[in-house]
């Protein structure tokens, strides 16, 4: 006899599971814990099978009978309704994985091991803030360029540069969808023309003519910066590392005996270990910091949260306090180092470039040029620190700093188009070493590096290669 809705509701649990039949193979299974399941027993290819049709009361008696009809219709077509149900679940799971959010999270999971933890968190956070709320639940196949454009324009209202970064992330996600067979094209192609044009530029940095004023402003500390912040600025000037590399420095990376700072690969932009020679002046600063923060893990710990490094905004704020807002950045010190070493100290490009941890520009050099020029860079960084010291001590001008007192002291270049620097290259600006020019004229080049550790005003003949 067919069941009624009241009978289904009135069925009470017992010590063992039992069932009440509705007919045509449909019955309600009552469990000892009170749960009630609709089930259908049938035979398929001479085998007894059981198909679950849902739980009562979520699936009513009428709904269970309707599902029974669908199952019997499948059997008439010689299709196992249980297998058909599994296929439907798999299809639903697959379609759920076709949304932009699902593909984006999958793409992020695939790539995060090749990124730093900080960058991986940055990417995911930007996607959550700017895309998941707008287009995250759309299947990729249903997204259109117009929908993506609307999302980017909303981001652009508060951050034009962020809109371009988000567009770049979306492009990579669409390309991943294409590669995995879930997308047909990159919907961001051409969308850059719908965003405001940006002005391309470089990080703000002072010119070499403006450098003396900046150096003296840092040295005098008229803005009364906190001591750790002041020392951080001075060390950045002497090392020219990237801001994140400096503020996240740990004491275990500093070798005082070898005068060397070894930055591990995972903290480098290039993902390669980088060695930074430390001048005597840099070691003096680190010694002061050791007395202040030697018991901490970080060289520059955050003041409110000492177990974490200082904020990357600290250097920008400090530069603003000494009067260089929008005129100088932490990254600008790298430009200063390259300018001084190439223009005033006569170094060729390669050792300066390695000091800044730049990768060779072309693929052949990246594959074969493994030289780190460390011995030369040690001398260079000491000469650079001496040059900064000469500015601090308020020498009248560069010609007087290099005024000749004997044949080994640098003299101004009278004919830059014909003169050679200390490495045998033509020098357009700067100073040359008298003894080197004399040795070049006599066909002899000295290979003994000299002048390391001496004040810039007393520097003698440089190294040759």
Give a short overview.
With 465 residues, the chain is an alpha+beta fold. Helix content is 45%, strand content 10%.
What does this molecule look like?
This protein is of the alpha+beta class. The protein has 18 helices and nine strands. The chain has a four-stranded antiparallel beta sheet, covered by helices on one side. A three-stranded antiparallel beta sheet has the order 5-6-7. Helix 6 packs antiparallel against helix 7, helix 9 packs antiparallel against helix 11 and helix 14 packs across helix 16. The termini are far apart. The C terminus is likely disordered.
Spell out the key features of this protein.
465 residues, alpha+beta, Double Stranded RNA Binding Domain, DNA polymerase, domain 1, hpI Integrase, Chain A, 4 domains, 4-stranded antiparallel sheet, 3-stranded antiparallel sheet, 18 helices
Tell me the β content: 5-15%
What is the count of structural domains?
4
From the alpha-carbon coordinates, what is the Rg to the nearest angstrom?
36 Å
Task: Write the CATH homologous superfamily of the largest domain.
Answer: Intergrase catalytic core
Question: Number of DSSP strands?
Answer: 9
Helix share, percent: 40-55%
CATH class of the largest domain: Mainly Alpha
Q: Which ranges are low-confidence, i.e. pLDDT below 50, for 5 or more consecutive residues?
A: 396-401, 403-465
Dominant shape: elongated
Order of helices and strands: HEEEEHHHHHHHHHEEEHHHHHHHEEH
Q: What about the largest sheet?
A: 4 strands, antiparallel
Q: Averaging pLDDT over every residue, what do you get?
A: 79
Alpha-carbon distance between the two ends: 103 Å
Pairing-aware structural class of the strands and helices? alpha+beta
- Examine the secondary-structure arrangement and name the CATH architecture of the largest domain: Orthogonal Bundle
Query: Which topology of the largest domain does CATH recognise?
Result: hpI Integrase, Chain A
Spatial arrangement of strands, main beta sheet: 1-2-3-4
Q: What is the count of helical runs?
A: 18
